[in-house]
Amino acid sequence: MVVPIATGDKIREIGDNVFMISPRNEKQTNKIIGFIKNEHKNDKIGCLFKQNDYGVNIANTFLKSLSTAYSQAYQDGQTDFRSILLKFKNEGVSFIFVPGNYEETALILKQSKELGLKANFIGTDGCYSPKLIEMSGNSSENFLLTMMPIDYSSNLYQEFEKLYLEKGSNLKKKLPDIFTCYGYESAKILIEAINNSPNKTIPEIKKYLQSHTFNSLTGKLKFDIRGEAEREYQIYTVKNGQFKPYH
Fold it and tell me: Does residue 115 share a domain with residue 55?
């Protein structure tokens, strides 16, 4: 199994035949921790996380490293965050980590602006969706998040963009998003491994994946001993209503 966008820390517990194109949640959380320590070390830090496996798992890693962060949880499907956000405001929190999905995060951004909470927010890959911007309007401007990286000058991306625009006539010439690109990359890597395995057996394919370097969206790519792609997350931000790589 080659999975393009699943990031759960326990995915490998399924078995040794799983290969992750996107690094685990722990890696993107550590990316955020490093970013905060480097660029926001003088801010009072908060963590507002979703009370589900995804949010709790990420929040636990975050709070172990930044134990002084003020934290609150919210429930799956919650729509009113005003009372929780007022607590962050009263605590003087100025930089808030929000691991969760785009639906709730959009409401958090919108309601924080309504309350006059002058804080910056950073989320994870679960927030990456044009619907976050659509739902929150200009409240999402300058919002930060971690996401899988892409080198848009790479041969693989250039090849895929050309094919995507040629064949996707019903897509109104819209460029492929990151999830779509990673699906293509995953298929290319798996097909290469199958084609280079004479008997097409699982042990052969697994051995090829473990021992070779692949052309990827971020240059040359290898899997580590756990079957996880050796790549780092990238920080993105919302600028003029679009997700852009942070400087």
Answer: yes
Cβ-proximal residues to 9 (8 Å cutoff; 6+ apart), any chain: 24, 25, 26, 57
* pTM flag (> 0.70): yes
The backbone torsions φ and ψ at residue 120, rounded to the nearest 5 degrees and listed phi first, read -95, 150
Amino acid identity at 142: N
Residue 76's pLDDT band (cuts 50, 70, 90): confident
| Number of domains the chain contains | 2
Last residue of a domain, one of 147, 171, 193: 147
Half-sphere exposure of 53 (CA within 13 A, CB side): 5
Residue 68 in any domain: the answer is: yes
Do residues 149 and 178 touch, judged by C-beta distance below 8 A? Answer: no
Which parts of 44-119 fold into alpha helices (H)?
A: 53-65, 82-91, 102-114
Predicted confidence (pLDDT) at residue 141 exceeds the cutoff of 70: yes
User: ∠54-60-62 over CA atoms, to 5°?
Assistant: 100
Average pLDDT over residues 24-44: 94
Strand 95-97's sheet: what is its strand order? 70-74, 45-50, 95-97, 120-123, 144-147, 234-239, 242-245
Q: Are 186 and 5 in contact (CB under 8 A)?
A: no
Residue with tokens 């057996």: 201
Asked if 219 and 130 touch (Cβ cutoff 8 Å), the reply is no
